[in-house]
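Field reference: sequence -> structure
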Amino acid sequence: MRPKKLAEKFRISASTIRNYEAKGLIPPAERSPNGFRIYTELHAAYLSCIQAMAQPFGMEVTAEVLRCLHQDKPQYAMWIIRKKEIALYEEKEKLERLIEDIRSYSIENKASCAEELFTINEASELTQIPKSAIRYWDQAGYVMADRDPTNRYRRYSGSHLLKIRLIQMLQSSVYSEDTVNFRQSIAATKHTDLEGIVNVAENIRGYLDRILESQMLGISNLYELIQFTKA
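Structure field:
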């Protein structure tokens, strides 16, 4: 196939294909007698794999995996993907615990007259999230701390901590329009709106389910590519 035909097949530009080739994501193109690039079904298999893996795994991981194939190290490639699968499962488990904690806190908070407040140091210790990250999210408007009226120091309630943990859930996710929208939803939801925080968390759970499906598709394409390269 000529570059234009291959590009049309995958709905990308010919320059994108040349860029993939330059970065070592697909094998070097063959050349016709007059010097034009000629691509084969092997290149098409690589492009299918790239498109299937980019969304759930990200381009950085996808590039690392494909370079392993170029180095004839398919086992390395598969272990890289398995590590990402495990990470997604761990994120799902963490999110389920967070949703349960939000619901429990909501019940406890209704029975309590006042919330306990924490310093940023205490908030960092309780959530296992660096102070620098919490401070940045405060400045960015994701979680607005209360202020001590005497010294203006930041003070965080239990509901603040739940919102901080929810923001942390998105830190390891592949950047996408969905993750941007989730961050905006978190910023727009007040820390006192526990029902709203749960709704955002449940939407993120649905997103993780979709990523799981995309991972399965990406793995299927990777396996087919590995078999193609062996043949």
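Note: The radius of gyration is 23 Å.
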